[in-house]
Amino acid sequence: MEKVEILIIGAGVVGLSIAKKLSEKFDDVVVVEREESFGRHTSSRNSEVIHSGIYYPQNTLKAKLCVRGADLLYDFARENNVKHEQCGKFIVATSTEEIPELEKLQQNGELNGVKNMRIVEKEEIREMEPQIHAIKALEVKKTGIIDTHGLMRMLAEKAEENDAFIVYKMEVTKIEKKDDSYIVQFSNGEIFQAQAVINSTGLFSDEIAKMVGIDIQKANLKLHWCKGEYYKDNHISGVKRLIYPLPDPKGISLGIHLTINLNGEVRFGPNAYYIDELDYKMDETNKKDFLQAIQRYITIEKDHLHLDDCGIRPKLQGPNDDFRDFYIKEESTKGFPNFINLIGIESPGLTCCLAIAEKVALLLKR
Ligand SMILES: Cc1cc2nc3c(=O)[nH]c(=O)nc-3n(C[C@H](O)[C@H](O)[C@H](O)COP(=O)(O)OP(=O)(O)OC[C@H]3O[C@@H](n4cnc5c(N)ncnc54)[C@H](O)[C@@H]3O)c2cc1C
C-alpha cells in the first residue's frame, strides 16, 4: 500500500491549481486522474474566458473567488508566458426593456469590487464594434481570454517542479476512513493510504463524496449535469471584444455569447439544458435557437454556422432551483477531517482556479 500525505483526486484546472499551491508547502502531494492526461473533461470544454465577477450575488464564493481569481490568473499567465489577452467585453441591451437589467449588473459588479466598467451609448458601440447591434452596452475591461490547455500544462509543470506527482489512468473506486487517514482504492487494484484527500473531480465530485460516506441527498449536494454546445462561424472577423447578451434570468447560464479565441476566430455558445447521461455527442437540433439568439446582436448567415464543441456543467442548481454557490468544505463536521470536497465548480471555475487553491490551502488542517 502506497502512503501519501495529500491525495488530490482529479487533474482538471482546479486539481492542478491545488497541486501547484500545496506542493509549495508540503513534500508529499500526489494527483490521481482517471484519464490518460489532464483536463479531458470540463476544463477543456469551456469558453476560456477570464471573468470579472459582475454576475454573482454579493459575498458568495463565486463572487469573491472570481474577483481574486482573475487577478491571480492574469499575474500567473503574465509571469509564466501562458497565452492570454485582456480583450474586454460588452454586455449588450438590444431593446429598451433590457436597459434596467444592464444597470443592475453594473451596480452588482461594483458591489463585488469589479473596476473599470462603464455604460457605452449606441453611437460609440457602432464605432468600437461596427458589426454589433445594440442600443446600450456595459463595457467590462477586466474580462479576457486564456489558453486553458497552456495554463494546465504550466500548472502541472510547476507542481512537478515542486516534486508533486501526477499519475494518470488511476480511477478512484472506493474510499474508506480508517483512524486518522483514508484508504483509497483504484480500478487497477492499487491502494493508497492518504492523510488528506481533496476531491476535485468536477462532474463526479458528488459520487466521490458519497464514496467516503457523505449522504449527498441529505446534504443537498447532488449534482445536475447541464450541457452547453458551441457553434463557430469562420466568416466573421474583426470583432475585438467578447459580446454577451443579458444573462438568463434564472441564473442557469450567461446566454449564448460571442467569444473570440487567441487567433481571433469567432465561436458562439454555450446554450444550456439539463441531461441525465454524460454524452459529448452533438447534432444540429438547437441550431435554430442559436440563430435566433445570435441574430439579436449580430447578423450572420445560417449556412456559416457550424457545430463546434460542447461541455457539461457540474451544477448544484437543479432545473427549478435558485442560485447555488460553489461548495468548498473541509468535512470535519461530517466526521471526515482533512477530507475537502469541491462540488458544483461550474463557471467561473476556470477564472477562480488559483483563488480556489488558496482557499483549499487554508482549509487543510496540519
Ligand atoms: C460550457 C462551459 C463553459 C464554461 N466557460 C467558462 C469560462 O468561460 N470561464 C470560466 O471561468 N469557467 C468556465 N466554465 C467552468 C470551468 O470550465 C470549470 O469550472 C472548470 O473547468 C472545472 O475544473 P475542475 O478541475 O473542477 O473539473 P474537471 O476539468 O472536470 O476535472 C475533474 C477531473 O477529475 C477526474 N476524475 C473524475 N472522477 C475521477 C475518479 N473517480 N478518479 C480519478 N479521477 C477522476 C476527471 O477525469 C477530470 O479530469 C465553463 C464550463 C462549461 C461546462
Q: Brief description of this entry?
A:
With 366 residues, the protein is α+β, with helices and mostly antiparallel strands. 26% of the residues lie in helices and 28% in strands. The protein has 2 domains: 2-45 and 149-221 and 323-363, FAD/NAD(P)-binding domain, CATH 3.50.50; 89-141 and 224-315, D-Amino Acid Oxidase, subunit A, domain 2 (D-Amino Acid Oxidase, Chain A, domain 2, 2-Layer Sandwich).
In the predicted model, the low-confidence regions spanning at least 5 consecutive residues are none
How many domains in all?
A: 2
Q: Please tally the β strands and state the result.
A: 20
Q: Are any ligands bound, and if so which?
A: flavin-adenine dinucleotide
Q: Compute the average pLDDT.
A: 96
Major sheet summary line: 8 strands, mixed
Q: Could you state the CATH homologous superfamily of the largest domain?
A: FAD/NAD(P)-binding domain
Classified by CATH, the class of the largest domain is: Alpha Beta
Measure the end-to-end span. Answer: 22 Å
What fold name goes in the CATH topology slot of the largest domain?
FAD/NAD(P)-binding domain
Radius of gyration: 21 Å
The helix fraction, in percent, is 25-40%
- Count of runs of 4 or more consecutive helical residues: 8
Shape: elongated
The string of secondary-structure elements, in order, is EHEEHEEHEHEEHEEEEHEEEEEHEEEH
From the coordinates shown, what is the CATH architecture of the largest domain? 3-Layer(bba) Sandwich
| Proportion of residues in β-strands | 25-35%
Look at the helices and sheets and give the structural class: alpha+beta
